[in-house]
Design a protein that fits this description.
The chain has about 290 residues and is mostly helical. It has a single domain (about 60-290), classed as MetI-like (MetI-like fold), CATH 1.10.3720. About 75% of the residues lie in helices and about 0% in strands. The protein has a two-stranded antiparallel ribbon with strand order 1-2.
Length: about 290
């Protein structure tokens, strides 16, 4: 029996395809075009091939920024994922307090990124900021504009404060989807709290944790506004992550060719790492099911 296919459904997604083309594909092609050419003004371009890619990949500046980026992302993930799980496990499951907790957890996510940076910039100042003034009052030498350790701590704590709520809310949703029968069976069997978490809650949160992990990895790897507002990449270049270095190259130095190659390499790194994480975690999930 021959099936009749109705291709008119493609007309429904055509506006989305056009929107994606203008907002993503065409700008990406423009960046690719700049990455293989050089210009000396007057809208004149000269083909240079892979010269800019070679320059970026061999640049110590790029290597340093990449190492700082991996360090920042690793620290963020190692803090926010366990902390989000811990918070979700201790949130009330029902009643008015559950609604209050959900609202409070969602509040940091509603604040724009530039406002988050401004809040922590003021919060950490030793003259008018609550954190900076408190540190000075108790005799702690804290200055995120001059001390590298203080700058890193401020940026990390700021990101943890801003985004742990996302992980917690995703984990909370995963916990809420677990049927009560699992917990009743565990109680009858006399399972410990750790056993309930290890064999019931954690496996049931696996998929939402995958989403949380990928979202936080991509967001932390592309972070720009918050550290730019707070430290500007300083002191020196100590908190200059990949995004900040790219903007400095493209706008500050107006090196369009190297900046375009930088952005393509940056994009491919994020794409590759996201694919590796997703593949590894989905393969683990299939192994657990077998």
């Amino acid at each position: 029996m021959n099936k009749t296919y109705n291709n008119r459904a493609w007309l429904m997604v055509l506006p989305v395809v056009i929107l994606v083309a203008f907002s993503a594909v065409i700008p990406l092609m423009t960046v690719v075009n700049y990455s293989v050419q050089d210009t000396f003004g007057n809208n004149e371009f000269y083909w240079v091939g892979l010269e800019w890619y070679t320059e970026i990949l061999n640049s110590p500046r790029f290597h340093d920024a990449l190492l700082r980026q991996f360090f920042f992302t690793g620290v963020i993930l190692s803090i926010e994922i366990p902390l989000g799980i811990f918070v979700a496990l201790h949130m009330p499951k029902k009643g008015a307090w559950a609604s209050v907790c959900l609202v409070l957890m969602a509040l940091p996510l509603l604040i724009p990124w530039n406002v988050v940076g401004t809040i922590w910039q003021i919060f950490g100042r030793i003259d008018i900021g609550l954190l900076g003034a408190t540190m000075e009052a108790i005799g702690v030498d804290y200055n995120y504009t001059q001390n590298i350790t203080d700058a890193w701590l401020t940026v990390v704590v700021m990101d943890v404060w801003h985004w742990t709520s996302l992980v917690a809310l995703l984990c909370y949703a995963g916990l809420q989807s677990i049927p009560d029968a699992y917990f009743q069976a565990a109680k009858i069997d006399g399972a410990s709290r750790w056993a309930v978490f290890r064999y019931i809650e954690l496996p049931k949160m696996h998929r939402v944790l995958l989403i949380a992990f990928l979202l936080r990895f991509m967001d932390s790897f592309m972070i720009y506004t918050e550290p730019f507002v707070v430290t500007g990449g300083g002191p020196g270049n100590s908190t200059t992550l990949l995004s900040l270095d790219l903007v400095k190259m493209a706008i500050g130095q107006f090196d369009l060719g190297p900046a375009a190659a930088f952005s393509i390499v940056y994009f491919l790194i994020i794409l590759l790492m996201s694919w590796i994480f997703y593949t590894a975690m989905t393969n683990y999930d299939k192994g657990e099911q077998q």
